[in-house]
Write a structure and sequence with these properties.
With 177 residues, this protein is mostly helical. It contains six helices and no strands.
Length: 177
């Protein structure tokens, strides 16, 4: 079964809304996605949607590592670096996510004969393709792309991308400011 591209659907946005600026002590789904992206970059965090001091420390360390302005605020430049530098297969993807890893997912879905836009945004069309793919392989059709799904999409090849961990990022709090 091949899913057709439907550009007329009101549920499939042509482009995702821009990421909002996220500040320390903010809460919500964008903070949870930020935490997932930071974890995928080697800063292990609990994805609870609360921008506490650990998340701020990880943001500052990430900004320092990528030569961005170190201010703890996540604006367009930090979001861009987080989403373009994330490797495929590291984080579990779900609807609403975006980035290079989503674009790679969409490319693999195209290899498996799904007609999805390769736009880097996990939209309704991508979720339908993922669910159909997972159903074919007797997996739970929950719309997420976990490591098992990534392995099947790669024809049984495990994920070659290793996460570079940053073991001292939380101990060096004096380097925050």
């Amino acid at each position: 079964m091949v899913l057709a591209v439907n550009n007329d659907s009101p549920n499939v946005p042509s482009r995702p809304e821009p990421y909002p600026r996220v500040y320390p002590w903010d809460t919500g789904p964008f903070v949870a996605e930020l935490q997932e992206l930071l974890s995928a970059h080697g800063y292990p965090l609990k994805s609870d949607g609360e921008y506490g001091w650990r998340t701020e420390a990880a943001v500052r360390a990430f900004q320092r590592e990528h030569r961005l302005r170190v201010d703890g605020m996540v604006g367009p430049e930090t979001w861009a670096m987080l989403t373009t530098a994330v490797k495929a297969g590291i984080r579990t993807l779900r609807q609403g996510h975006r980035g290079r890893d989503v674009r790679d997912l969409q490319g693999l879905l195209q290899v498996h004969n799904f007609m999805v836009h390769r736009n880097g945004f996990f939209d309704d069309q991508t979720q339908q393709a993922v669910n159909t793919f997972k159903k074919r392989h007797n997996l739970r059709t929950d719309g997420t792309v976990c490591p098992v799904t990534w392995t099947l999409l790669r024809a049984g090849k495990p994920n070659p991308a290793a996460v570079k961990t940053h073991p001292g990022w939380l101990r060096s709090l004096h380097k925050w400011w």
